[in-house]
Write a structure and sequence with these properties.
The complex is a heterodimer.
Chain A (H helix, E strand, L loop, with lengths): L1 H23 L2 H35 L3 H39 L7 E11 L7 E4 L12 E4 L2 E9 L4 E5 L6 E6 L6 E5 L9 E7 L11 E5 L11 E10 L6 E6 L9 E7 L4
Antiparallel strand pairs in A: 1-2, 1-12, 2-5, 3-4, 3-12, 4-5, 6-7, 6-9, 7-8, 8-11, 9-10, 10-11
Chain B lengths: L1 H12 L10 H27 L1 H12 E6 L6 E2 L5 E13 L5 H18 L7 H24 L7 H10 L5 E4 L4 H10 L6 E10 L7 H4 L2 E4 L13 E4 L2 E4 L2 H5 L1 H4 L4 E7 L5 E9 L7 E2 L4 H11 L3 E8 L5 E7 L12 H7 L6 H4 L9 H11 L14 E4 L2 E4 L12 H6 L3 H11 L1 H10 L22 H8 L5 H8 L9 H13 L26 H13 L10 H4 L11 E13 L2 E14 L6 E8 L9 H4 L1 H16 L12
Parallel strand pairs in B: 1-7, 2-11
Antiparallel strand pairs in B: 1-9, 2-3, 3-4, 3-5, 6-8, 9-10, 12-13, 12-18, 14-15, 16-17, 17-18
Helix pairs in contact in B: 4-5, 11-24, 14-16, 14-17, 16-19
Chain lengths: 276, 659
């Protein structure tokens, strides 16, 4: 009878031993183990991502020729639109450069664009982190800003040999300095506590009192460029609410973020050419 | 004996000694023991059951701390809603020391080990070592902030120690008043869960610099912040510094502007650090806003027109008595008030005094309006009666009197022209006809002998309306006819403030005897009504025509306001009166007279809306300094701006926001 009791308690005993053992392991060893695990699982993550990509390719091959022709036409239209935008951008950049020269303004920090495919999104933190398929092998540094066509994606928080982890702007662990478009006063933006698969939102603090926003008259929130991490003018989201704070000095508000942040497949890492 | 030996042998062979029955002597001790136990139990029950409240209270006082945070002050606006005084955010990077306890302790151990390793006999004491550890750790975090903000700040050890001893519950301020760029860099680069956080407080914000500085006033530091109805008054309380009005409207309306303090009650550990979450929390609430009657555009116009001169200008809304302008120069820039050296500079320039309210000067010829009213009411003269012939000079009671205006050729002047051309000889005689008592009584009717009661702290009562009784009482001298002659033209002993003369002008404009000035704006404020002056229509017409003639060429003493294009107020009829008074002063070792230039007016004549008084002090002994040429342009600048605003179409209101 006592033997049977001991046999029943054995798993709990073993678990207890493991927990105690983990607790007494030095932090350096734990960090090493965590990093090793990250690096060891990276090839699996990448392989899974490639397999997913291949699956998508084969799924696309099932489309009819008519659908492909239609998609090709759409793509051509989109390309021509983008080419026009590129030309406009080039012209505007030239104007900006001339004005900067005239006003003797210091140039904004330059970045190398590193496009990367999203390898995995963490289900435990759906609106918090994604893993991209590039890491130290592409000289991606910790802290680099990450963007997509809709604006800011987040910041690189961890870099492995082949992959990197990006903290999303939808995460409450990310904070950045934004400005209302056309304004110069910095506002603190922080990701919100977002439910998985729900519409992403963030919060803003220190909003000047003369900024008014409502769901029907939103204000566009863009990066300020003052923080030194993100270049200015990148879209963060739309301020949908700004209420007077209790101290009467500022307003606090809510920001509606791009829902496409929940289905990212490609992002661009802005690698600073002259890091501070 | 043998039996005893056996018994002893038996007893010595056994270690157990047994007794049967109870020894009465032991029973006694049972009672004693029971009594002792009962005492203990009773004491315990007493302490636990009856003194629970006391112990709970002592535990509460020992383990709980209260932090009070002052509420931001309310804003001050001008009558059109333009911000005069507001609050600006003051970004401060702070360090939460309670999150650094383990780090500070590790540093303490490391420092102690390092000192011991040196073998030095003069080792720091334990308290010193702990302070060293705190400075090292805090400097480490400050270096982190320095790297982000590109500064090179160092920790002030004494300040840190003082904070640690008395304000441990509050975060320690590392750098105050961050620039927006620094604030942006910090919020973007500091980890979210860092002991370093950006904190905001409010500081007074003066968007218009020195505009209406004396009227708005300033605030000082207030350590005596109290939170009414917030529990824990008996707890040890740490109070964040607030502000209190020290001058001007900030002082007068301090109870209104003062915010409602918020508070937090924390449980603290044995080292005095707070344990989150707080037990009780109430957010601070901003104070109420104050809408003043001032018009910022007019105020600026007046101050710009006075420029570097010493003087004051006051403008009132005739109907309501609301003060539109209350300008005093020299002044000081409220936005730079706390900069080093500012106070010394203000003192050197004698800029503290609000001359509009507390600048007391003889009113000169602007007082002739009051003399005229007194004479007309008393019947001392009629508007069409020439009471004397002005040849430029006369003798009254053996003393020579001169006419300073119109080169002394006014001749048989009537009241209208005497006012318009400010004939001194006419008013010298008028004073004698009216008598000093009657002039003083008339001045008292217009409240020129007392404070106006404007909502500003420290309004002085140095104004003086003399009469024979006063001279006898104060100077022990008799009243001479010459005193009446001087008093009639606003000289001698008469002194009043620009605010009083503006009230007087507004009263004359309304044909009433008193105007109560107010600095608080009220939409649709009902017009003031006081006792009528009591002039006949013809008498009033002569008075107003004389005042209007003052601005007309060729002989009006303020004709420059009509003749000079830049000073003209187009399409507006103005009734005014100039004045120039003299005062003997000693300046730079030289004794002589300096002039005070006055101009009082109201407009439009047919429907008075605005009344003004301007007084400018001459700065050079012996300098010709007339009211028309020195005070008039200030009034002109304000009137031009006033009527330009009146004639401008109302601005389109912003669309109503539906939130």
């Amino acid at each position: 009878m006592p033997f049977r009791r001991l046999a029943t308690a054995r798993p709990f005993f073993t678990l207890g031993l493991v927990v105690v053992g983990w607790l007494v392991v030095p932090i350096a060893v734990k960090t090493f183990l965590r990093a090793s695990f990250f690096e060891l699982t990276a090839p699996v993550t990448i392989a899974t991502s490639y397999a997913g990509g291949a699956q998508d390719v084969w799924a696309l091959r099932l489309h009819s020729q008519g659908e492909l022709i239609e998609a090709g036409r759409d793509l051509t239209r989109l390309n021509s639109s983008y080419e026009f935008s590129v030309q406009q951008n080039t012209e505007l950049q030239g104007q900006i450069a001339r004005l900067e020269g005239l006003l003797r303004l210091p140039p904004f920090g330059d970045y190398r664009l590193e496009h990367a495919r999203v390898a995995r999104r963490e289900f435990s933190g759906w609106w918090q982190r994604i893993v991209i398929r590039k890491g130290r092998n592409f000289q991606i540094p910790v802290g680099a800003p990450v963007v997509f066509s809709g604006g800011v994606v987040g910041r690189v928080t961890e870099v492995g040999a082949l992959t990197a982890v990006v903290e999303l702007i939808t995460s409450p662990n990310l904070r950045l300095a934004g400005v209302v478009e056309g304004d110069t006063r910095p506002i603190s933006f922080q990701g919100g506590l977002n439910p998985t698969f729900g519409p992403p939102r963030g919060i803003v603090e220190f909003v000047p009192l003369d900024v008014f926003a409502s769901p029907t008259a939103t204000k566009r929130l863009v990066t300020s460029g003052l923080g030194g991490v993100f270049p200015p003018g990148l879209t963060i989201g739309e301020i949908t609410k700004a209420d007077l704070g209790p101290d009467g000095l500022f307003k606090n508000g809510e920001v509606k973020l791009d829902e496409r942040l929940g289905s990212l497949t490609e992002v661009t890492v802005l690698v600073p050419l002259n890091p501070e | 004996m043998a039996t005893d030996d056996v018994n002893l042998a038996e007893r010595s062979g056994s270690l157990v000694e047994s007794h049967k029955g109870y020894d009465p002597r032991i029973i006694f001790f049972y009672f004693v023991l029971a009594a002792l136990l009962l005492t203990l139990a009773g004491g315990l029950a007493y302490q636990q059951l009856f003194k629970t409240g006391d112990y709970h209270e002592r535990e509460r006082l020992q383990n709980q701390r209260r932090v009070l945070v002052p509420g931001p002050r309310g804003n001050v606006y001008d009558r059109h809603g333009q911000l005069l005084v507001g609050n600006r955010p003051r970004f401060t990077v702070t360090l939460y020391l309670d999150e650094l306890r383990s780090e500070i302790y590790s540093e303490y151990l490391r420092s102690r080990k390092a000192y011991r390793a040196t073998g030095d006999k003069d080792l720091p004491t334990d308290t010193q070592l702990r302070q060293i550890a705190r400075v090292i750790v805090v400097q480490r975090y400050l270096d982190q902030v320095n790297r982000i903000t590109r500064r090179a700040e160092r920790i002030d050890g004494k300040d840190l120690e003082s904070h640690f001893l008395s304000r441990r519950l509050l975060p320690y301020s590392l750098i105050a008043d961050l620039a927006p760029e620094e604030y942006a860099r910090l919020i973007e680069r500091l980890p979210i869960r860092s002991p370093l956080q950006v904190y905001t407080t409010s500081a007074r914000y003066y968007p218009n610099g020195s505009a209406a500085a004396h009227t708005l006033g300033y605030v000082g530091t207030n350590s005596n912040v109290s939170a009414e109805d917030f529990p824990g008054e008996d707890l040890k309380t740490t109070t964040m510094r607030g502000t209190i009005g020290e001058a001007g409207l900030e002082k007068q309306f301090d109870p209104l502007l003062q915010g409602e303090a918020g508070g937090t009650i924390y449980r603290v550990d044995k080292d005095g650090y707070k344990v989150n979450p707080p037990l009780e929390k109430r957010l601070p609430v901003q104070g109420q806003n104050l809408t003043t009657s001032l018009d910022l555009a007019l105020q600026r116009a007046a101050e710009e027109a006075i420029g570097d001169q010493t003087g004051a200008a006051v403008a009132l809304d005739v109907a309501t008595g609301e003060v539109l302008v209350l300008a005093s120069k020299p002044d000081y820039n409220l936005a730079e008030f706390r900069k080093p050296g500012t106070i010394a500079d203000i003192e050197a320039r004698h800029a503290w005094n609000n001359l509009a309210v507390n600048g007391f000067w003889p009113p000169g010829s602007s007082f002739k309006i009051l003399t005229s009213i007194a004479g007309l009411r008393r019947g001392s003269f009629a508007p069409d009666e020439a009471i004397t012939t002005c040849t430029g000079t006369t003798r009254i009671a053996g003393h020579p009197f001169f006419c300073s205006n119109g080169l002394g050729h006014h001749g048989d002047v009537l009241l209208r022209d005497a006012i318009a051309q400010s004939c001194d000889i006419y008013f010298n005689y008028a004073g004698i006809l009216i008598t000093a008592e009657a002039m003083a009584a008339e001045a008292r009717r217009f409240h020129l002998d007392r404070r106006t009661g404007i909502e500003l702290p420290g309004e002085n009562n140095r104004m003086l309306i003399p009469d024979p009784e006063w001279k006898k009482r104060v100077k022990s001298e008799a009243w001479f006819p010459g005193d009446s002659a001087l008093m009639a033209m606003g000289q001698g002993f008469v002194v009043v403030s620009p605010l009083q003369m503006a009230c007087f002008a507004a009263s004359v404009a309304r044909n009433e005897v008193f105007t109560q000035p107010t600095l608080v704006h009220q939409e649709n404020r009902p017009p003031q009504h006081t006792e009528a002056i009591g002039l006949t229509t013809a008498q009033r017409a002569a008075l107003i025509e004389g005042m209007e003639g003052c601005l007309l060429p060729p002989k009006g003493t303020a004709r420059n306001l009509t003749m000079v294009e830049s000073l003209r107020v187009p399409g507006i009829r103005i009734a005014g009166k100039t004045g120039t008074a003299q005062k003997t002063v000693t300046k730079d070792g030289k004794t002589g007279t300096i002039n005070y230039a006055w101009f009082i007016c109201f407009a439009p004549v047919e429907n008075p809306q605005i009344a003004m008084a301007v007084a400018i002090e001459g700065d050079t002994i012996g300098e010709e300094f007339g009211g028309g040429f020195h005070a008039g342009p200030v009034a002109s600048a304000v009137l031009k701006k006033y009527f330009a605003q009146k004639n401008r179409p109302a601005p389109l209101l912003p669309p109503v926001r539906m939130n």
